[in-house]
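[Meeting: bench + compute handoff]

Bench side (C.D.) handed over the final construct sequence. Compute side (W.E.) agreed to return the predicted structure before the next meeting so the bench team could plan truncations. Sequence as handed over:
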Amino acid sequence: MITDGELLREYCDEGSEESFAEVVGRYVDLVYSVTLRLVGGDRHLAEDVTQRTFLALAQQADGLSARATLAGWLHITARNVAVDTVRRERRRQNREQEACIMNELPTAPDLPWEQLRPVLDEAVASLRERDRDAVVQRFFQGKSHREIGVTLGLNENAARMRVDRALDKLRGYFSRRGVTVSSALLATAITANSVQAAPAGLAASVAGASLAGAESATGSMLKILSLSMKAKLAVAAAVLITGATVITVAQQREITRLRTALASVPPAKAERNPPAPLRPVPDLTRILGEQNRLGAVEVLRQLLPVVDAVSPADMEGVLTAMKALPRTEGCKLARRLLLARWAEANPGAAVAWAAAQANDPDRADYLSVTLDTWATKDMPAALAATEHMDDPTARGAIEADLLARFAESDPRAALDTLANLPLGQRTMDLYRVVFQGWAQKDISNAAAAAMNMPASQARETAIGTVASAWGRRDPASALAWANAFPTGNTRTTAVAAAVAAWSGTDPVAAAAYFDNLPAGPMRNKLVATLAANWAAQDPKAALAWVNRVANGQVQDVAVAGILAKMSQTDPVGAAAYLAQVAVASLRDVALPQLAAAWAKLDLPAALAWVQSLPGTDAGRAQAYQNVLSNWVQTDPAGAAAYLQTIPTDPNFKALTGQLAKSWAAADPQAALVWVEALPAGDAQDNALSTVIASFIAIDPQSAWDYAAALPDDNSGSKNRTKAESMVVEIWSEQDPARAADWLATIPVGNNSGAAIATGVVAANWLKQDPAAATKWIEGLPENNARDRAIGELVRIEGKNDFPTAYRWARAIGVQGLRAPTINIIVQQWARSDPAAATAAVEADDFGAGVRKQQLLNMIKQNSPGAPSEAAPAATPTASAP
């Protein structure tokens, strides 16, 4: 039998597509099976990897033709391509698809927040400063990724990645304390629960007291506004105009109150002349341009009549014209006022306009204002219109806010609205919102409504939410109600929720009640929650209780949570306790937590303690890294100098990587200088890869310049080709359009590195914006780089649009790539529409190397009814090496 190598030689020397097809036929089942296992059973992804593998074979055929068999090469290539593909997919999915691992207990629906609540701020405080800033802005303040990026000096995609990474760190923090929750649910829980409305009048009273002694720009303004009402208005107006990048829904409601209050304050003398006829756009431009001179109160005074004078029919034109104005906070306020006014008169039109602003970074803000205004008139319609919001976090926040208000005024109607939604995590979160509000207002009717719901996940959620709210206010009554349910999941849910809530206000009493609960999953689940709440008041008493009532993993998780609390106030005591602990799993969790907390209080003492830990302690490495991470935030050069004194430490490589990561986030140029001075070896390679990855997120062009200057004769990360590939991959994922613009500035020709970069940019851009990417590919000059990009386009189009894929395959300039690409597209096309495939081939005038009759025979062999193959045929891609 002819060998694999001989078939490849015929393909290379004679252009025999039949020979290449024979090789594919021999190994397609092997490659497909390998990839299917590695991508977790995702058949579409397995087909994609199979395509990439065989294209790599076609591109490297000449160098492989000396092999008698290709089995081993194809296996390792398929494996490498699959691993790379999975890595890309996981990064692209923004870490939002990790499943929530549920314990065996049918968890009380409100229990996750009860477990998150006691340690939320502690968890956020444990983050690095830049991560903490990102989380607070996103989930506490409701800012968009674009606005976070402006604040942190990042582009929008880099800001999104930072938020996602920080959210993952929070999820890991909670997981180590026994609270298992998905990233999506964690984001929703924090957004919905982390910030509560302050009592009416509190802001004004606090502002009045604070500003009484202030000597600032605001204080100067308040000296002029001597009346109490003027002072309160000035504070409120200043907050609305300059206090936050995104003006919250609560602040929007403040605008309504300000309308009334402003009427009692006379205008500034300079503005008492008879008003001129209003001209909306010029007047808005003038007012916003004079914002600093006029002051906050006068800006609001002048904006309101201009906004009120705009008719609903003219709103769209005025809002569109305002896009040409500078994007100041005053401009945002003016748009909010206009949108609220429009939504009062014609909410459907206002929401439709907001939803149509697809490329506007403030689109979510527009939707929030219009939906909130609509809700004051027709709550069910406003809730239904939230479907326009494609940002799940923003959507969850506005839905929760609307439903909370709905529940205050008409909880039964709010409940009826939810009954029409499909069951799922989002709907369960909304049930919690409704019943939380209802229980605060009328616990008896809320409890009765929850009990009367039909058996479902929604009923369990409602009962758990009521039990939790009741347990905080009156635990005895809550538990009496919970224990009235028949033995089973519902009773377990209600009792667990009530006890968890009770432990937040009186952990000692809750622990006494806990002692009488029967052994089982409910006790195990409650240990960590009760311990965490108790530890906030008396960690030593909580430790004694946990050691008495729990053992094994349940005990370890609870003790870790207590020690985390204890580390914030008494790290020496926490270290003394840990010194007596022999359980490796507990030490692995607790040592790093203690190190991180202690380093913030006393870095030298924390470092000395970590150094004293046995080298065999598995948690020592992470503890060391946590101390170093804290050190590098305040003194990276000092941390780097310290590392040079411990080159033989078993954790040296890991510590070097951690320092590189932390330092690069703050100052990549300085981090690069440090990495360059490290001794050559694995530690330097690892650190350099880390710094380059961080560098790309901040300044991709400079990262490329650095990579391009590296030598190409090094096998580590300082190898130019490897560094360039890393830059292009990450850059094109973050901002493919900008990466494409950059590609136009470097010489391509037959440069293989530039061609590979073009293919990578095309692959990532096509997944994000196929239309824009296709237009870019059309404009590329004909060369190897364009062929690479076309290969990516064909791979994607070949899944859904065979005529387009076929047309693009014919446009490939390199014969060695064009022929196999056409072959495999025709094979796939024949399986779904052999008549169309035949017509296309017969009408085509092929150049040298592709025989029309061979393709027609291929169509017959792959048409429905022909002998089937064990696996889908491959389509090519130009992204493989």
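W.E. noted at the follow-up: The two ends are 30 Å apart (CA to CA). C.D. will use this when planning the next construct.
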